[in-house]
């Protein structure tokens, strides 16, 4: 049974590459993967535009977590990635990761254009 639901932009080549790495690691099927760019996915906890704008995960209790803290939740579920969740969860580290993620979001459109070529 999934422990986490991940919302990702399947139309983003860069995002899709990263998610496919995680999906291959998810042999226990601990994560439910939801491609928000697919219009058939309508049971969304936030407007589609909000989910496409940044990375979101939803815990089974319904709590939404976004950005760097969302990635930490994914890593906690995946063998081979759990080791990364521990240092990433140390005080101050999620904040630094979030700053880096916000920087990435600013250059994401340009990076998407490069990956589409």
How would you describe this protein?
About 50% of the residues lie in helices and about 15% in strands. The protein has helices at about 15-25, 50-55, 70-75, 80-90, 95-115; strands at about 5-10, 30-35, 55-60, 65. It is of the alpha+beta class. The chain is globular and about 35 Å long. It has one domain (about 5-115). It has a 4-stranded mixed β-sheet with strand order 2-1-3-4, with helices on one face. Helix 3 (about 70-75) packs antiparallel against helix 4 (about 80-90).
SSE string, helices as H and strands as E: EHEHEEHHH
By secondary-structure content and strand pairing, the structural class works out as alpha+beta
For the biggest β-sheet, the strand order reads: 2-1-3-4
Integer-rounded radius of gyration: 14 Å
Largest sheet: 4 strands, mixed
Strand content: 5-15%
The total of beta strands comes to 4
Counting DSSP H or I runs of 4 or more residues, the number of helices is 5
**Distance between the amino and carboxyl termini:** 38 Å
Low-confidence sequence ranges: none
Q: Using the alpha-carbon principal axes, give the shape.
A: globular
Q: Averaging pLDDT over every residue, what do you get?
A: 93
Number of domains: 1
Describe how the helices and strands are arranged.
Elements: E1 4-8, H1 13-25, E2 31-35, H2 48-53, E3 56-59, E4 64-66, H3 68-77, H4 82-88, H5 93-116
Parallel strand pairs: 1-2
Antiparallel strand pairs: 1-3, 3-4
Helix pairs in contact: 3-4
